[in-house]
Amino acid sequence: MTAERKPRKDAVRNRAAVFAAADALFAQCRSPEEVTMADIATAAGVGKATLFRAFGDRTGLIRALYEARLAPVRAAIEEGPEPLGPATPPLERVPALLDAVLCFKLDNRHLALALEGSGADSPYRADHYDHWHALVRDLLRRLPGPPDSDFTAHALLAATRADLVAYLAGDKGVPREELRAQLAGFTAAVLDARTRRGTAVEG
Amino acid sequence: MTAERKPRKDAVRNRAAVFAAADALFAQCRSPEEVTMADIATAAGVGKATLFRAFGDRTGLIRALYEARLAPVRAAIEEGPEPLGPATPPLERVPALLDAVLCFKLDNRHLALALEGSGADSPYRADHYDHWHALVRDLLRRLPGPPDSDFTAHALLAATRADLVAYLAGDKGVPREELRAQLAGFTAAVLDARTRRGTAVEG
DNA sequence: TTGCGATACGGACCCACGGTCCGTATCTTC
DNA sequence: GAAGATACGGACCGTGGGTCCGTATCGCAA
């Protein structure tokens, strides 16, 4: 077993400072690209190298922020009560999941934008996307319907893309509840049509 | 009237050279980010400034390439025969439009990726997106169904996002025809559910 | 053909930003 | 409190988008 010895006290303090500073800066600025690493280091009262030592690179920092915010949602899904928790039947859980994703991206627009639009790597290569997709796909498979659960899961999740959400909620000024209702309606329509169109269950 | 005098001969020749070089380079490389402006200039046998003079900036160049490829599709939609042309009834034209978009993005993955993922500006602020969205939304409105055509149009188009298409067709190796069939199935399901769920027509 | 203003060329140059290096400071442990 | 390990920080580097300006080319007219 790799017995990782505990890190130095100042290291954890600095890590936390960077974390907080980055969170605040990303929340303030319109577009995530106008926050530079140097900005974050300065705001945290820390040298640039400290920042990179703690998080590897820009993507690593953003991912860390994102994962921290996401943790409670994950917990609610994995072991929480209905309608998000695992005991919920698929027909209710899929809409609940999508609604949770939407709400999360509404509440954390800046981070979601920064992560999904981190240039080089498409959001589809991120591991957390696979997680969501597998979850939705498997729920769809447990429902009667045509055997295209994989694509349908992608398509449903695409409706919650960070930049789309930011565009509608931000630029277009669509209110939160209205967006939620529209996504719910769309999801319901898709599920409804699927259960109606075919009764085969995928292996 | 702004009487724009005609450009010099070498200017148009260079512009064409840059155009061709950029097209070739983007087509060859895996990710559009590994093609630099200097690369394009070199490949075109031209100085960097010439390139920027002709197209403004990176986004301008990519957009010009994209629009050029898109022109035939646009023409087919605006004045072509069925099922893409304006004479087609909405119920058939919406799937046809989405299929055309999908095929276009499959055939021009590199450009679509370069444009949608051009970092700063979300794809939703591009004017061509508004065009597609308005088209789909207006068709949906002409159909009986719930009054959320605007969002539904966004959601349907989101299923054809360039990075999703590239991910499925490229990384996952989903064959072209299978992808088309899946998108068609998804679209049909959405339309089917809409016409079934409500009979109101939006004003 | 030649002369001349207008236009375009090109590559050296600039700047911003992500990421690294290394001499120095701080922590931990004995 | 001394020694070794660990972390600090800001100067530094490479890269890539975008610009500047002295020079070459073009178009036109005489």
From TrEMBL, chains A, B:
DNA bind region: 36-55
Keyword Iron part of the UniProt annotation: no
Domain (HTH tetR-type) ranges: 12-73
Pfam annotation, one family: TetR_N
Official protein name in the record: AcrR family transcriptional regulator
Gene3D superfamilies tied to this protein: Tetracycline Repressor, domain 2 (1.10.357.10)
InterPro entries: Homeodomain-like_sf (IPR009057), HTH-type_TetR-like_transc_reg (IPR050109), HTH_TetR (IPR001647), Tet_transcr_reg_TetR-rel_C_sf (IPR036271)
Record keywords, A-Z: DNA-binding
Superkingdom assignment: Bacteria
